[in-house]
Amino acid sequence: MKEKIFITGASGFIGKAAVATLINKGYDIASWRHRPGANIPEHLRRTRMYTGDLSDLNQETTRQLREALSGARTVLHLAAKTPEAAHSRNEFQKHNVDMTQRLIAAAQEARVERFIFVSTQSVTARRLSDYAQSKKTAEEAVQQSGLDYVIVRPAIVYGPGDLGLFAKLVRLINAFPVIPFPDSPAEFQPVLLDDVARTLAGLVESNGLKLVDIAGPDAVTLKQWIGRIAQVMNKQRLFIPIPMPVAFAGARTLSLILKKPPITVDNLRGLAEASRVDIGSMRGLGIEPLPLAEGLRRTFAS
Q1: Is pLDDT above 80 for 42?
Q2: 226 vs 173: CA distance, rounded Å
Q3: What's the Cα-to-Cα distance from 222 to each of 153, 159, 184, rounded to whole Å?
């Protein structure tokens, strides 16, 4: 068996895929989940499982964290609060910044050699959302840690099992013949989940990279992306553009009313500020991300 890797967020969308990929490559995985549960996913049964709130360490959680990190060469830190629900600035600070700082300290104590931090492309926006600001602050903590680190910035990730923006769009397309959408000209590069997992595994096995953008090869606007999804679903839909100021006002209102609104202010800021990125680092690892059409076809075929 290969070296030990400690993975946070192991039961999340990207975490599940990363764990499965690394297990198949023969790594010894210590996995961390935020909450215990009776239904343990199959991929986690093949790992050393630990559970607790890393953003608020108590004595038992600290003991488990030390045990999980013991002998680990690499930390893959995926756990985070995302903008898929109307979280407050304080929640982003607690779960994205404070938790990362605590994990860095624990990794230093355990003499971990490598720290891979999964951030977001939103940190490059001119106007940062609360989510993006928390990730940027966490990035700075990683950079200043003295650990050998890699910061990973994925684009919007899609694939089987998604519960985020992609899943919301699929539900909208299924449910309504008319689809309103925020009218932004910004382009982004959706990336298939499997390509993200393969890139993360490649980073475990490589050295020298400090910052890696993970994205697909095709750049699309939000309208084009929704249209591509509807086409693969074989759904004829009418798309109605909504001016961005109106979309922001609507998202703010929905965030006050709904615990999980269909789109959040942070979602909109990320979409409005999106830009093309260079995927040369992925290709340098031997990862050629799938074109969007093929990625969507595989997603709906699974």
Answers
A1: no
A2: 8
A3: 19, 17, 7
The residue type found at 143 is: Q
Residue 195 is encoded by which pair of tokens? Answer: 């390509």
Dump pLDDT digits (tens) for 113-126. Answer: 999 999 999 999 88
pLDDT at 35: 73
Concatenated DSSP letters of 198-218: HHHHHHHT--S-SEEEE--S-
DSSP SS3 for 193: helix
- Phi and psi at 105, nearest 5°, equal -60, -40
> Bridge partners of 118?
152
Judge whether 115 and 148 are in contact, CB under 8 Å: yes
Domain range list for the chain: 4-155+190-215+277-289
Check: CB of residue 129 under 8 Å from CB of residue 122.
yes
At the topology level, CATH places domain 4-155+190-215+277-289 in Rossmann fold (3.40.50)
d(CA 196, CA 13): 11
3-state class of 146 per DSSP?
coil
pTM here is 0.92
* Orientation angle between helical segments 99-109 and 130-143, nearest 10 degrees: 20
Cα 185 to Cα 188: distance, rounded to the nearest angstrom:
10
The residue whose two tokens read 């595989």 is 298
Residue type, 35: R
Angle between helices 193-204 and 13-24 (to 10 degrees): 50
137 in Cβ contact with 102 (< 8 Å): no
